[in-house]
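Still learning. Any example?
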Amino acid sequence: MQNIGNAVIQGIVEGLTEFLPVSSTGHLILTGKLLGFAGDKADTFEIIIQLGAILAVAVIYWRRILNLFGLARTGSSIESQPNTSSRLNLIHVILACLPAMVLGLLLHSFIKSYLFSPYTVLVGLVLGGVFMIFGQKRQPAVQAEGMDQLTYRQAAIIGLYQCLALWPGFSRSGATIAGGLLTGTSYRAATNFSFLIAIPMMFAASGYELLKSYSTLTSSDFGFFAVGFIVAFAVAFLAVLTFLKLLERFKLVPFAYYRFALAIVFFVYLTINGGA
């Protein structure tokens, strides 16, 4: 049986980083390296705790999700302006998710074989940080203050930017928020849309991976995995609500600087330890 302390640590890391523009995949790979937690069991555990984070966002955006299916008439309770005649619909979500889903499926073997290493994650952290600074500095005049002002064209372009996150360490939320800014979307709209489209994206990716690896689980893993799932859910719930407030005040650049600092620290660590 795995160490419960590792489950708590990884659950916290997943919950804190999954929806922040700092790359949860990168943090989990690097944290796993520090904890000595790697292999098939670790990969399956990461999928399970990611599902916990997905559930947290689904709970936060439950009204908006129902609205997409015509089952509710108001937006998410955390959005700045409630909407009674929402223009955002499933077509926006499909356009934003389809490119990364298709490309991810086509390149899945290549990505898993060649890009899931500490050094490639460090490259992703740096490149993603540069892109986030670029998105903030080059944001044009805002055309969509809220998600309901997003056009199909903006949703499709955000979907293309999301493909950048297929490189581990780049960050899905960083790519979509910065990409949203470049399309003329406000910070709040870009962030809310990024979180919303994360639900089908992450559910599809996690479901696919879980189907391939569920056979590695045994009954003795239940407690360990349950702890990680619950911790990831609780921390992600708080992290999303907190990040929406932080973003309005600090924007993306401080998160980019954090990514650069993290890359430097781990590069030094890996160099000293010979990449081990």
Remarks:
- The chain has a mean pLDDT of 89.
